[in-house]
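Researcher: Good morning. I'm working through a list of sequences from a screen, and I'd like to move beyond sequence-only analysis. For each chain I'm collecting a predicted structure so we can compare shapes side by side. This is the next one on the list. No need for commentary yet; just the structure.
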Amino acid sequence: MDSPSSLEIVSLKTKYPQGAEKMLIKKITNREVPEKGLPLDVGVVVLNVGTVLAIYEAVAEDLPLIQRVVTISGENLSREGNYLVRIGTPFKDIIQYCFSGEEKELLERYELKMGGPMMGVFQVNSDSALIKGTTGLTFLKKYPIEASPERDCIRCGRCVEVCPMELYPLYYAFYGKRKEWEKAKEYKVENCIECGCCEFICSSKISLLSLIKKEKQYASNSNKT
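Model: Good morning. Structure tokens for this chain:
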């Protein structure tokens, strides 16, 4: 199929978190979204295919957003895949369809995340329901290896090396543990996209992401006052 001259398909290297909004804009257009700015500030609008489809159905077919495609993945599932699911569907119903055994058996051995393995949110049970922002459900084996205890930061710098936003996560660990939220704000914690790369690579097994979220919440609240 011939594409219009104004349309270009760009293939990017598979690299997490390549799909993040600011990463895509920089890689494809070489434009940088300013601090605390929006893509529109650099003349860009970023939409995923699900959003584009929802807009088309709303405008052209007068259909409300009542369903979306979600990815069901993880170990020991009998029916992994991408499914078109109605918004409001309980997670337990999805589990029942994708898992051949009992729901209790699955949740005893696996943790359920709404989203992907890196940025997904752990669910304490399966009573929640699908919302319009649910991209998928991921099942991760509980305690696949014995977790090392958290230690003090050794300032190895690995978190700085992997940060796609070129931030300094080691300072967020240092100030977060001391509840010095204002200091973390000075190191531009608001620019963090919460990809989790720093926590994943941390030699000291520090729960960086939880500290960063608290620091960002403080920064957001302080900006309102």
